[in-house]
C-alpha cells in the first residue's frame, strides 16, 4: 500500500484512521487439509499497522478514467489481481479483475456482479488483505480453481501470486465441426490439422490433478481453440481466450483473459497440483476423475457449419477410447477457427 498511499495523501483527501480487525469472506470452519470449504479464506493481516483510508469520489465502472482508477488498478495488482496496465483507464481487463474481487473478497454471487468499484469495495480493498490457500500442505506451488465463484488462484509458497476471473464448462452437450492440430487427441500421429465433427459434454470435473503439458501459442483441439494451454486433465487445460464472460461458457477448459495467458506458463510448472472445487464435494473426495470423452457426431458431414449446436444434456454420452495426450511437435500456424473451449 505504500506505493499508492502518498498519491492520494498529497491530494488532501485523507479521512480518519480506521482500525483494522480480523475478518473473513464466507470462510468455512474446520481444520486439516480436507476441511470443507466454499470460498478461500480472506483475512486482514493483523501484523500490518492500521492505515488512513482514502475516500472514493463516486462509483466507478467500465469507461471511467482518471487518477482514482489508477489507484484502484495499483491496489488490485498489489493484492495479486491483474487489471492489465495500470494506465488509469477502466477497461475490460480492469472489469474482469473487479469481477474476481467481487466474487472472492466481497462474496458477491455471480448473477449479481456489477463490475463496478463502490466506496464500500474500495474501503475493503484498502485493508491489508491476505488470500490464504485452502490446501496449504499441497505442493510447494499449486493452483486452486473455484467453480462456484469462477475464480482461480495460483499460490507460490502459500502466497497468492495471481487471482483471476475464469470461465469453465457449462454442463451442456454440444456438437460441432472442430479443427484438431497434430499431436492432439484424435490426431496424435498426424502432420496436418484435420477437421471433423465431434460432440461432447461441457463439463469441468472437480478433483485433484497436476499440470502435465504446456503448449505455447495457438492450439486447436476437440475442445476448440486455445491460447498457451497448460493441460491438467487429459484435454482440459487452463488457457487464454478472447471471450471470458461472467458465467461458465467453455467446453470444459478453464478460460482466462488473454493478457494473463501471455505469462501464465511462467507461473506454473509440470507437476504442480491443481485443486478443483465444484461446490458439491471436496476435491479429494473425487480423486482425479477424467472428463467425459467426446464422441463423433453421427450427423456430421463435410458441409456441416462450425456453428455450435447445443442439445439436451444426456447422462449417457458415448465416450471414445481414452487416449492420454502426447507431447506435440512445434505448433503449426494459427488457423482461422475462432471457437474457444
Structure description:
The chain has helices at 5-9, 67-78, 92-104, 119-125, 258-267, 283-286; strands spanning 42-44, 129-131, 141-146, 151-156, 159-165, 173-180, 194-201, 207-210, 213-214, 218-221, 224-233, 236-241, 254-257, 273-277, 295-296, 309-311. The protein is an alpha+beta fold and 341 residues long. It folds into two domains: 5-27 and 35-124, Orthogonal Bundle (Muramoyl-pentapeptide Carboxypeptidase, domain 1); 133-258 and 267-341, L,D-transpeptidase catalytic domain-like, CATH 2.40.440. The strands form four sheets. Strands 5-4-3-14-8 form a five-stranded mixed sheet. Strands 9, 10, 11, 12 and 13 form a five-stranded mixed sheet that branches. A four-stranded antiparallel sheet has the order 15-7-6-16, with no helix packed on it. The chain is 15% helix and 24% strand. The model is unreliable at 1-33 and 304-340 (pLDDT under 50).
Amino acid at each position: 500500500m505504500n506505493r499508492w498511499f502518498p498519491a492520494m495523501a498529497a491530494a488532501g483527501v485523507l479521512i480518519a484512521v480506521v482500525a483494522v480487525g480480523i475478518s473473513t469472506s464466507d470462510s468455512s470452519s474446520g481444520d486439516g487439509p480436507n476441511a470443507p470449504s466454499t470460498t478461500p479464506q480472506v483475512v486482514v493481516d493483523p501484523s500490518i499497522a492500521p492505515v488512513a483510508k482514502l475516500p472514493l469520489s463516486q462509483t466507478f465502472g467500465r469507461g471511467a478514467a482518471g487518477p482514482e482508477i489508477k489507484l484502484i488498478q495499483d491496489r488490485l495488482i498489489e493484492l495479486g489481481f491483474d487489471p492489465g496496465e495500470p494506465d488509469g483507464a477502466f477497461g475490460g481487463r480492469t472489469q474482469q479483475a473487479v469481477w474476481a474481487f467481487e466474487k472472492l473478497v466481497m462474496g458477491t454471487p455471480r448473477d449479481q456482479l456489477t463490475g463496478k468499484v463502490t466506496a464500500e469495495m474500495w474501503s475493503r480493498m484498502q485493508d491489508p488483505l491476505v488470500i490464504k490457500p485452502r490446501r496449504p500442505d499441497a505442493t510447494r506451488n499449486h493452483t486452486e480453481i473455484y467453480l462456484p465463484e469462477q475464480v482461480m488462484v495460483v499460490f507460490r509458497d502459500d502466497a497468492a501470486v495471481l487471482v483471476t476471473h475464469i470461465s469453465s464448462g457449462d454442463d451442456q452437450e454440444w456438437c460441432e465441426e472442430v479443427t484438431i492440430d497434430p499431436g492432439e487427441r484424435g490426431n496424435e500421429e498426424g502432420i496436418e490439422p484435420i477437421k471433423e465433427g465431434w460432440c461432447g459434454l461441457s463439463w469441468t470435473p472437480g478433483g485433484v490433478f497436476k499440470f502435465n503439458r504446456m503448449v505455447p501459442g495457438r492450439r486447436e483441439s476437440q475442445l476448440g481453440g486455445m491460447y498457451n494451454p497448460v493441460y491438467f486433465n487429459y484435454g482440459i487445460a487452463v488457457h487464454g481466450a478472447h471471450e471470458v464472460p461472467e458465467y461458465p461458457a467453455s467446453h470444459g477448459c478453464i478460460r482466462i483473459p488473454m493478457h494473463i495467458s501471455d505469462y501464465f506458463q511462467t507461473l506454473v510448472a509440470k507437476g504442480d497440483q491443481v485443486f478443483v472445487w465444484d461446490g458439491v464435494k471436496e476435491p479429494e473426495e473425487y480423486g482425479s476423475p477424467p472428463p467425459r470423452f467426446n464422441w463423433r457426431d453421427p450427423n456430421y458431414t463435410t458441409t456441416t457449419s462450425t456453428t455450435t449446436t447445443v442439445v439436451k444434456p444426456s447422462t449417457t454420452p458415448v465416450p471414445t477410447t481414452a487416449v492420454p495426450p502426447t507431447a506435440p511437435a512445434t505448433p503449426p500456424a494459427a488457423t482461422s477457427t475462432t471457437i474457444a473451449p
